[in-house]
Amino acid sequence: MAVEPKNATLTIGMAQLNSGDSPPDNLQAALEAIAELADRGAELIVLPEHADFIGPDSRKEEQARAIDNSPYLDTLRTRAADLGCYVHIGSYLERAGKSIYNCAVVFGPDGELVARYRKLHLFDVEIPGGKKYLESAVISPGLETVQFSIGEFNFGLATCYDLRFPELFRRLVQKGANVILLPAAFTMQTGRDHWEVLLRARAIENLCWVVGAGQWGEAPPSHLCFGRSMVVDPWGLVIAQAPDGVVNVTADIDLHSVQQIRARFPALDHVREDIFNF
Asked: Which CATH architecture has domain 11-265?
């Protein structure tokens, strides 16, 4: 007998921020966004990449803190516990020994740390227009994939440039993910052509929800972020999208659609694992 899919739903909140080089201002903006989204019923709140600091490489080392010695994280942890919701902090500069990581952290509604993900793929590119980025000048790459669960929802973690590497998403889905969370600070030049296309492609390929929470606007020393945070369903349809600006967006995701689409269109069952080693 076929098992009826569970109709579990969860409200996700995305904070589209315009973070800069003032950590106190960034923290205040994050706290205000979390409070508003929780008030709107969000059970899981996702901040964008670099919500703690966007600025010159020369200041990143001084901003980096260990997970157990970060007033920034402690404040967000307390806010998650006070509001009784899950908070994905986007990413922050994590110090671990001599290394610094672009690190995503998720706190649960009791304030406990439920996941930590160090960005795997570092943004070392020259974008259209000639601007060069060398994330590896300061940041070390992570070494493992990370997932966590809320009830029947299994969340895979990725960050910004990771979006261009489909093998990461396939690995997360084959390990049980039905939702991918992707905080980002996509550049304006790449975002206007690739952001939506890539988010939808990853959702379609893997028949899963994809949540992209982005930075928006100008930031020092010369960053311009695309924004347009969005939630994409397992069929690749955009069900929620932020306009330009600093804005908070909520959307309901469900397990029924994942199970229904995967049953009717079982592409994941047809992966040639005998040829492609995931």
From this structure: 4-Layer Sandwich (3.60)
Q: Look at the block and give the residue holding tokens 């996509």.
A: 186
DSSP assignment of the chain: -PPPPP--EEEEEEEE----S-HHHHHHHHHHHHHHHHHTT-SEEEPPTTSS--S-HHHHHHH-B-GGG-HHHHHHHHHHHHHTSEEE---EEEEETTEEEEEEEEE-TTS-EEEEEE-SS--EEE-TTS-EEEGGGTPBP-----EEEETTEEEEE--GGGGG-HHHHHHHHHTT-SEEEEEE--BHHHIIIIIHHHHHHHHHHHTSEEEEEE-EEEETTTEEEE---EEE-TTS-EEEE--SSSEEEEEEEEHHHHHHHHHHS-GGGG--TTTS--
**Which of 213, 133, 202 minimizes the C-alpha distance to 173?**
202
**Which residues participate in catalysis according to the annotation?**
49, 119, 160
pTM for this model (two decimals): 0.95
Q: How many CA atoms lie within 13 A of 218 on its CB side?
A: 3
Contact 70/43 with Cβ under 8 angstroms? no
How many angstroms separate the CA atoms of 194 and 197, rounded?
5
CA distance 69 to 212: 28
Question: Phi/psi at 272 (nearest 5 deg)?
Answer: -85, 80
Domain ranges of the chain: 11-265
Mean pLDDT score across all residues of the chain: 95
| Tens of pLDDT, residues 13-70 | 999 999 999 999 999 999 999 999 999 999 999 999 999 999 999 999 999 999 999 9
